[in-house]
């Protein structure tokens, strides 16, 4: 994943990156920070758009995604001030903030490379099961499953996990040039199976990625453990022309 980001940013210094939060991309961010420090990989002309944001977390809350991304990645490399944007979960006019966010992405020329994680229920960004496959940035209600999964970031207290978020829609994500999804651990195995091999369905929102012309799914053995055609994928990868 870091190789994909690096080769994009080196060939197109003003690239537009799509950033995910959560645990899945953390090692990618660490690796990009290392390359920034040790081999001069620069994000000075790049811009980035975040996938989603909780609604209603105080500006200084450590789990506000804008703060998380600053801490985990943006603040450790050389993005210009204001180059990393996220939907404004504290806006008075939330639908207006969503429309403005869509316009900002289009105004930047669209996302070149979008990093993604996947929820155990098959969400990408916070497009929970039942999300319209044609959705754009909007407010969503988090499922009990997602709130339970994310309680680990909120003192293991589900009550502290917000009920609502603003999230890029599935169509917003599908507009990016290259999708790079990361999944590790057994808890993601069913979602990865559905994403790669299931029928395209709003019930498993990530399945829309099957319709994308350039999608890369990076998994460890545990996350791959329910893939029906794993042997074929390994053979394909090993004998790649
Ligand atoms: C976060 C996001 C979510 C996460 C997903 C997986 O910005 O969009 O879709 O990628 O919930 O979370 P982790 O990586 O923590 O398992």
How are the strands of the biggest sheet laid out side by side? 4-2-1-5-8-9
List of distinct ligands in this structure: fructose -6-phosphate
The parts where pLDDT drops under 50 for at least 5 residues are none
Structural class: alpha/beta
Sequence of secondary-structure elements: HEHEEHEHEEHEHEHEH
Number of separate domains: 1
Name of the CATH class: Alpha Beta
- In percent terms, what proportion of residues is strand? 5-15%
What gap, in angstroms, lies between the N and C termini?
20 Å
Q: How many helix segments? A: 8
- In helices, the fraction of residues equals 25-40%
CATH topology: Rossmann fold
Q: Write down how many β-strands occur, each being a DSSP E stretch of 2 or more residues.
A: 9
Using the alpha-carbon principal axes, give the shape: globular
- Average pLDDT confidence is 97
For the sheet with most strands, the description reads: 6 strands, parallel
Question: What value does the Rg take, in angstroms?
Answer: 17 Å
The CATH architecture comes to 3-Layer(aba) Sandwich
């Amino acid at each position: 994943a870091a190789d994909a980001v690096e080769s994009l940013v080196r060939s197109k210094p003003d690239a537009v990156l799509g950033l995910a939060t959560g645990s899945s991309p953390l090692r990618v961010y660490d690796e990009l920070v290392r390359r920034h420090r040790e081999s001069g990989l620069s994000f000075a002309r790049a811009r980035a758009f975040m996938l989603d944001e909780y609604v209603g977390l105080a500006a200084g809350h450590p789990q506000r995604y804008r703060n998380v991304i600053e801490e985990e990645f943006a603040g450790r490399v050389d993005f210009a001030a204001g180059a990393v944007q996220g939907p404004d979960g504290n806006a008075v006019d939330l639908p207006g903030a969503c429309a403005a966010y869509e316009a900002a992405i289009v105004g930047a020329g669209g996302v070149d490379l979008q990093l993604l994680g996947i929820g155990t229920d098959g969400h990408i960004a916070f497009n929970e099961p039942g999300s319209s496959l044609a959705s754009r940035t909007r407010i969503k209600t988090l499922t009990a499953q997602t709130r339970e999964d994310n309680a680990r970031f909120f003192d293991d207290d589900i009550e502290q996990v917000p009920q609502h978020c603003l999230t890029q829609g599935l169509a917003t994500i599908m507009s990016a040039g290259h999708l790079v999804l990361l999944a590790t651990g057994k808890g993601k195995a069913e979602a990865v199976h559905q994403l790669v091999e299931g029928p395209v369905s709003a019930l498993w929102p990530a399945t829309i990625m099957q319709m994308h012309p350039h999608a890369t799914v990076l998994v460890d053995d545990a996350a791959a453990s329910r893939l029906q055609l794993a042997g074929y994928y390994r053979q394909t990868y090993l004998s790649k022309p």
